[in-house]
Amino acid sequence: MPRIKTNNDIPDIQNTLDGFPKKYIPKVGSRNIVVPMEIVRRDGSINPTKAVISMYTDLTPEVKGTNMSRYRILVEEAIANKTHRIDELMSVLLDECKERLKSDNAYIKIKFDYFTVKEAPVSKIKSHMDYKGSFEGRLINGEKRYYLSANVLYASLCPCSKEISDYGAHNQQSYADVTVELNKENLSAGNKFWFEELIAAVEDSCSAPIVNALKRVDEAYQTELMYENPVFVEDMVRKVAEKLDIHLDKRIKDYLVIVNHFESIHSSTAVSVINAGRDLR
Questions:
Q1: pTM of the full predicted structure?
Q2: Residue 11 in domain
Q3: What domain range is 179 assigned to?
Q4: Average pLDDT for runs of 10 along the chain of length 281
Q5: What's 144's domain CATH number?
Q6: Burial letters 21-38, b for 16+ CB under 10 A, else e
Q7: Is 200 inside a domain boundary?
Q8: Fewest CB within 10 A of the end CB: N or C in the chain?
Q9: How many domains does the chain have?
């Protein structure tokens, strides 16, 4: 039977003062911390989800190591005692990194699944759509910065194929990764930038959005919608960027858009990247 020990009975190796290189470490911490979480939708309803958290702080040269269990404990305590909501939790965890872990530089990323219900265009039958997203918080020299990202699937049809063919055109499943730096002054105000707006910026620009449940009348509609709205990867990033430009320096401070089209007649993938010309690249 193991003997129960107190902290006074065991050495604290991480607090060793000598015998290691005195070098600064910009990121040390823990990742794949899985916990239940809530996301508030734009309409005020709650999206329950599983959150996967990565949490890092920096380490000054005179300190040998961090206490890895502290990162998980901070997350668990924040969820148990303060909030389950992602938007509120991020600020709490950054504060904890600064106050309890004594770090002016920290990085936290919360990955999540975001569900919406979509209607088929003609039959109006409903089905769930799962979007991958992340919310990042960075503490840089004591200052907080926030980033929201969405991975959005969509369908694209090739304009060149449509133009040169007597009938038909090749199309493909595609996706966009969109990241915005949020204006932190708007996070707790009524003018915050919503995850749904990242989704809309992509789906309103593409040949056709993905809908998971379709009847024949819906499939016919989607096929013709794609044919009427062909897009190259270059078209997509420009269209999405135009939509984000409306909010630049108001509700968002920066953006990055990466588009991938999985070519149906090639083994390669077409890619295009655009940004606001600032820090995100």
A1: 0.91
A2: no
A3: 20-275
A4: 77 69 92 93 91 94 84 93 85 91 92 96 97 96 94 96 93 96 77 93 97 97 96 97 95 96 92 96 89
A5: 3.10.270.10
A6: eeeeeeeebbeebebebb
A7: yes
A8: N
A9: 1
